[in-house]
Amino acid sequence: MSLEYKKQFNLPEDITYLNAAYMGPLLKQSADLAKKSIDLKSHPWEITPEDFFDPIEKARHLIAQILKCKPDNIALIPSASYGIATAMKNLKDLPSGEIIVIEEQFPSNYYSWSELAIEDGHKLISVKRDMKINMTEAVLDSINDQTRIIAMPYVHWCDGQKFDLALISEKAQKYGAKLVIDGTQSTGAVHLDLDKVKPDYYITATYKWMLSPYTMGFMYIDEKNWNGKPLEHNWINKLDAQNLSGLVNYKHDYQEGARRFDMGEKSQFHNMTAFIAALEFIETTGVDTINKHCKELTNLIIKNIEDKDHKFYYWPSSQRSEHILGLYFKEQNQLEMTKQKLQNNNVHVSYRGQAMRISPHIYNTEEDIQRLCYDL
Ligand SMILES: Cc1ncc(COP(=O)(O)O)c(C=O)c1O
User: Could you tell me if the CB of 157 is within 6 A of ligand 1?
Assistant: First the structure.
């Protein structure tokens, strides 16, 4: 089955690509469409006013279908940091208190909060990671009546550690704390029940697990935040922007839902068709199918290394996501040797913090895992 998926990508036989957490490959179909889109920019007379609006609405609908929410909840953004900056702007000037982050979380989801902490006199609390304890409980223990914002990932980028966001959200709501989630290392590969988690902002850069072009992403914005302030004040998010000749009549009202938070130049002619093809692929394949497939592959790695258990440690299954396996080597020199062997054999993984991060996707096969395990 995965061979059928693999055929839809340009993945050469001699490359073992287990690095979706770094960069998802484009589908062949997306790559072909992107080439056509570049050509379109050479013929600008073929770009119609509808091209500014219709494709982006299609993308918005597909994201909503994947997330199981309303298209009105979705804003289109170019990067996770843009989404986090938008959240930060709207969470400015809360009474001083505490902002909770997770140790070693991705820098784009750290710097905004360390800035805000200085600006608004908050204390930044970094929850220490430890495999020997339950990390969801560690986050729960750090929430109290001083907590203003919890900004954290669903799945940790370094090693696939996963949190129970429904439990964290329940306590956050009890104390009136705002919840900002970075879904970059989860959306497309792990389902998140938005109805249960009810994040204020759920942000994803889509160039990894959602197999999209670079500089595409989205943020889910809860309805109660739709009246907030966008990061920029562009023409295209205002009411009646479709009427190009009428743009000289400045408008104060925005288009409905979260559209006011869309990035400027959101129409992205060069990226949009490839983006839509990727979203259609994720939607038709199904996040659960992708998750199940990745789980089979990461379990296979664990099965293969079980008897070499003395060499590695990793998060227990109760705290580990299905699609990313972070292996920690007990001996540094073994890590270096393995890194060299994998490089020599064209097996692609990443090294983040102290972890070797292995991240298969739907195009990977059991044979890919055997090639990896041969060198472990
Ligand atoms: C968890 C996480 N968030 C965000 C990003 C990307 O951030 P940005 O879109 O700001 O470059 C990455 C990239 O590795 C990531 O792993």
Answer: yes
Residue 79 Cα to ligand 1 middle (Å):
8
Q: Is the CB of 184 under 6 A from ligand 1?
A: yes
Give this prediction's pTM.
0.97
- The encoded tokens of residue 111 equal 């710097």
* Mean pLDDT of each 10-residue bin along the chain, 376 residues long: 89 97 98 95 94 97 98 98 98 98 98 98 98 98 98 98 98 98 98 97 98 98 98 95 94 96 96 98 98 98 84 95 97 93 97 96 97 94
State in Å: Cα 37 to ligand 1 middle.
Answer: 26
Q: In the CATH hierarchy, which top-level class contains the domain 38-284? A: alpha beta
Architecture field, domain 2-18+287-375? Alpha-Beta Complex (3.90)
Taking the domains of the chain in order of start, what are their residue ranges? 2-18+287-375, 38-284
Q: How far apart are CA 142 and CA 309, in angstroms?
A: 33
105 CA closest ligand 1 atom index = 1
